Amino acid sequence: MVVEASLILVIVFAILLAVGIPIAISIAIASLATVMLVLPFDIAVFTSAQNMVSSLDSFSLVAVPFFMLSGIIMNHGGIASKLIDFAKLFGGRIHGSLAHTNIIGNGLFGSISSSAIAASTAIGGVMVPSQVNEGYDRKFAAAVNIASAPAGMVIPPSTGFIIFSLISGGTSIAALFMGGLVIGILWILAVMVVAYVIAKKRNYPIAPKAKNENAKKIILDAIPSLLLIVIVIGGILTGIFTAIEASAICVVYSLFLALIYYKTLTIKQLPNVVIHAVELTGVIMLLIAASSLMTFAMAITGMPDALSNLVLNISENPIIILLIINLVLLLVGTVMDVAPAILIFTPIFLPIAEGIGLDPVHFGIFFILNLCIGTITPPVGTGLFVGSSIGKVKIEEVIKPLLPFYAAIFALLMLVTYVPQISLFLPNLLDL
């Protein structure tokens, strides 16, 4: 039964994707076909529909559209230039200062927008040409932008952690946020170290020191945007509001910044922003419903236990098991967006991880870290394609300059995977 169910699920899903059917519909149809192995057609359809609807009946899901709307508002709010100027203050006095500005800017903008593509486009679109104009190698500049673009996706507020919390059965969002904050900062620092070594070797210029009055103005301009992160983290930690309530506060604050403080968004533009958020929310919600049906199909046919036994038959050594999970997730991340990958693979790998004694928070952090790295991994990572386009270089030309960055990022991944204290020490310290 398990073998037949697995084959039907995988083959039907693959065929539907190959002919261009949207991923959510492909998941739902493949899952329904699998359920029909066990239940009669009418009962299978009724049960599947009921399962999909009930999966969306969750208060936690309220956070998803609000955080997405907040990110879109901030993305339309013209904050990229202010964050770039702010980043220059921290990365501007060492070799390769413009590269460091790009890295810090990507981390800040990515966390606020919850999008590596938005960060790569908004920050890299400005910083890559600036680096080239200052004598930086174009391929190096593109590699810096690509390697740092996904870092912000693990820094709160991160919609990926919210979705993981929901699918995993209620893993603490606050703990995931705090662990992700540490990992995101380490990712930024790792890329900066590599960029510094290369920039010093090539003698890339150091930016002139900003005048005190300019520095004050830059900081004052950037602080309101950066306060979004502080408000979310501070409010959750102090218990003023929950992570779900924080999402609504983010929307109100983002509207205040874009409409009133910065005045970069008008009332006339607001309906288009809301429509964009509604469209993205609809896609995510349909994916969640379809993935819930896939989880049900797998459970009713006994697939999770079979997959767990398969992995454990390969090896009972936790080190090998975690390595297998890492390799699969990296491969998945190259071909699939982070949200659907979380929805599909969390029910598969979480029972295995818990079976070898992993903390769900630790697992969630390295799970999403893998998927984020996958977006910039050859041959088909979406972040790799976008970053190459922004840098105006061919993918094959940027792979070699990316190799030292890959080494640093994969080293970080191994540390996070095998040293749980790295991602858990802050949540444990804060008793989350």
Description:
This is Tripartite ATP-independent transporter DctM subunit. There is one protein chain. The chain is mainly α and 432 residues long. The protein has two domains: 68 residues; 338 residues, no CATH class. 78% of the residues lie in helices and 0% in strands.
Key attributes of the depicted protein:
2 domains; mainly alpha; transmembrane; 78% helix; globular; 0% strand
Briefly note the structural class of the backbone.
Answer: mainly alpha
Largest sheet: none
Query: In angstroms, what separates the terminal alpha carbons?
Result: 41 Å
> What string gives the helices and strands in order?
HHHHHHHHHHHHHHHHHHHHH
Radius of gyration: 22 Å
Secondary structure topology:
Layout: H1 2-18, H2 23-35, H3 41-55, H4 63-76, H5 80-91, H6 97-113, H7 116-122, H8 124-133, H9 138-148, H10 159-167, H11 173-202, H12 212-238, H13 243-261, H14 270-301, H15 303-314, H16 318-335, H17 338-355, H18 360-374, H19 382-391, H20 395-418, H21 421-429
Summarize the structure.
By secondary structure, the chain is mostly helical.
